[in-house]
Amino acid sequence: MKVYFIGILFTMVCISASRLCAQTNKRDTLANAKAKHLYIDVHQLGPGKVKLKDVAAAHAKDLAVEGKYGVDFIKYWVDEDKGLVYCLSSATDTAAIKNTHAEAHGLLPNNIFLVTEGQEAALKGSKNLYLDIHELGAGKVTAKDVAGAHQKDLAVQQKYGVNFINYWVDEKNGVVMCLSEASDSSSVINTHKEAHGLLPASVLKVKQGN
């Protein structure tokens, strides 16, 4: 009887320990997930010095290394004429992104922006793709402000044949990046102008990879 009781007690302890371990692992997993943030890192390679296929090859190298540093590269955009590359990723910090790029191909970003994003719309794929950049000043814009402005863009975009896909906000640096489809950059500018009057500092014609 004593041996039987000890056996039952041991089983109960094992079950309790197993449940506690599972709960701890779940908390750790959630903590790790919460520790990640969205970033957009920018590479300034020089006018005419980069092609989409070159970036695609570098991106493949990033994907081969990213797990080592806990980075998840999501999408990238290339302005071939101006030699600019914008990479969207999820990571714990900027060092993880730099280390991934350094090991993968050695091309380090000139800037890395900590961003939040809006609600993504579907690409229609029938027009050019543009990334327009708003430089509003450090600490002078919030994600809430941009969400409101974006809704105004959506209310006007059809008039100019624009399809806004998504936007990203760096509150600390006051930078907003908007991705859209349009026939030309003037359509993007005119939509912003009528919607809320906040004109971009630059409008880049880009190609997207993922």
From TrEMBL:
Gene3D superfamilies in the cross-refs: ORF SCO4226, nickel-binding ferredoxin-like monomer (3.30.70.3090)
Keywords: Signal
Secretion signal span: 1-22
Organism superkingdom: Bacteria
Ranges annotated as spanning the membrane: none
Record protein name field: DUF4242 domain-containing protein
Species this chain originates from: Niastella vici
Upper classification of the organism: Bacteria, Pseudomonadati, Bacteroidota, Chitinophagia, Chitinophagales
